[in-house]
Amino acid sequence: MNAFEIRGGKPLSGTIVPQGAKNEALQVLCAALLTDEAVTLTNVPDIVDVNTLIELLVDMGVSAVRPDNNTITLKADKIDPDYFTTHAFKKKSGKLRGTVMLAGPLLARFGKAYIPQPGGDKIGRRRLDTHIRGFEKLGVDFVYDADNQMFSLDAVNGLKGVKMLLEEPSITGTANLVMAATMAEGVTTIYNAACEPYIQQLCRMLISMGAKISGIGTNLLIIEGVKKLGGCSHRLLADMIEVGSFIGLAAMTASEITIRNVDADHLGIIPETFQHLGIDLKIQGDDIYIPAQEHYRIQKFIDGSILTVYDHPWPGLTPDLLSIVLVLATQAKGTVLVHQKMFESRLFFVDKLIEMGAQIVLCDPHRAVVIGLDKQMPLRGINMVSPDIRAGVALLIAALSATGKSIIQNIHQIDRGYERIDERLNALGADIKRVNLV
Helices (H) and strands (E) in the chain — how many of each? Predict the structure, then answer.
């Protein structure tokens, strides 16, 4: 079993560049199915989840050319419709949740699609209702095969534009429905749509392919269907979760780090959230500079009450950064309530932080109170297991700040979302080794 062996307690220094955005990559890779012309994507992260989706696209009949690890040209001109009913499709597509977004493009272009039960992180129930109900409104019939855990979707009479109000501003749901609506007959309006930067990026890419979309950046998207879409070139944004992770790493290890090419205009309240936790950071053009800080103090609300940090749909804080916030708070001066609203299992890794010496009260599956130690009692290295992508990197950051040696097992979870994270952090002075545990 592959694991990371980390010797912590060392200050880091230098410059690091965030990878391309994982969550955007999964959307725009699926969007390449909307045309039989070439689509070139740059700044694509070379990570397990993205590479698994690319492998799946190739298995479907898409040609893929990669002149380098972060650039790919896709051409979906020879799709094999029989592949979607095979066991191989079900097995590979069930490995990550992003494959659910294959359905929108396939329905738009071929009138049929199949969705397996979602894979990916085990962070609680992640339902597909927003996707399926939205497709129904566009004129899609669906059947669920319980034995094979597969949804079969069929647009028998073609997709028809409609007004819809989403029950939740699901990011993947919005992406799926927008892609389907680009080639539906008539006009589709999606209210309560997600408006994250990656949805905005997807819409801009679709427009460059010939789609007609307005309302980008708002929660009301209007899509006028077209007959055909063409090829395009598209650059992915920097991964905001990596940016936030590196900010947290700098503070926890009292390190001077510059994060370059962060696409600062698309970070929303992420920098401000870390400033509320006492982090001294400066946005310099498109870079973020974090000086070495021996101490950082958690702010309070204006009335003097304890700060609460919680996740919320954009422009609120992404839930993917709450694990970093929680770890960061363990060595701050002050107290914070971390409220994970969207998923019920993402805080269960705190038992490992408590074992490392952190003072955390897990109130329930959604809330944890962190009492900062102000670096007076450093965390200590332990053996642990990465439960999911984001908790895995949070534990890695904790281990890098801890005294002694830590072992993190199940690092496949970390590799799913972070490109060569050990090599890139070692270049800053970290001591991370990949080891095989017998």
Answer: 14, 23
CB atoms within 10 A of CB 272: 11
Dist CA 366 CA 341 (whole Å): 6
Query: Known catalytic residue: 68?
Result: no
Pull the structure tokens for residue 44.
């694509």
Q: Mean pLDDT per segment of 10 residues, for the chain of length 438 residues?
A: 93 98 97 98 96 94 96 95 82 81 95 75 58 95 83 92 96 97 98 97 98 98 98 98 98 97 98 97 98 96 96 95 97 97 84 96 95 94 93 97 96 94 98 91
Amino acid identity, position 194: A
| H-type alpha helices, 121-239 | 129-137, 171-181, 197-208
Asked if residue 296 lies in contact with residue 251, where contact means CB atoms within 8 angstroms, the answer is yes
pLDDT value for 121: 41
**Residue 106: both structure tokens together:** 């396939």
Please tell me the distance from the alpha carbon of residue 305 to that of residue 387, in angstroms, as a whole number.
32
Residue 81 contacts residue 37 (beta carbons within 8 Å): no
> Do residues 356 and 402 lie in contact, with contact meaning Cβ atoms separated by under 8 Å?
yes
The H or E element spanning position 273 is helix 270-276
> Which residues are registered as beta bridge partners of 405?
7
Q: Which two tokens stand for residue 329?
A: 């708070």
The separation between the first and the last C-alpha atoms of the chain, rounded to the nearest angstrom, is 7
Q: Supply φ then ψ for residue 6, to 5 degrees.
A: -120, 130
Which position among 46, 77, 82, 121 bears the catalytic label?
121
Least Cα distance to 389 among 412, 409, 407, 414 occurs for 414
- Per-residue burial over 78-114, b if 16 or more Cβ lie within 10 Å, else e, is ebeeeebeeeebbebbbbbbbbbbbbbbbbbbeebbb
Do 79 and 60 meet the contact criterion of CB atoms below 8 Å apart? yes
Per-residue tokens: 42: 């740059």
State the DSSP H helix or E strand holding residue 327, giving kind and residue range, or none if neither. helix 322-329
Residues 99, 141 contacting (CB under 8 angstroms): no
The answer to whether 386 and 395 are in contact (CB under 8 A) is yes
Give the DSSP letter of residue 388: S
**391-401 in b/e burial notation, b at 16+ Cβ within 10 A?**
bbbbbbbbbbb
Instruction: Round to whole Å and give the CA distance between 412 and 106.
Output: 30
Count the neighbouring beta carbons within 10 Å of the beta carbon of residue 52.
19
- The answer to whether the bond into 81 is cis (omega within 30° of 0) is no
Provide the pLDDT for residue 231. 98
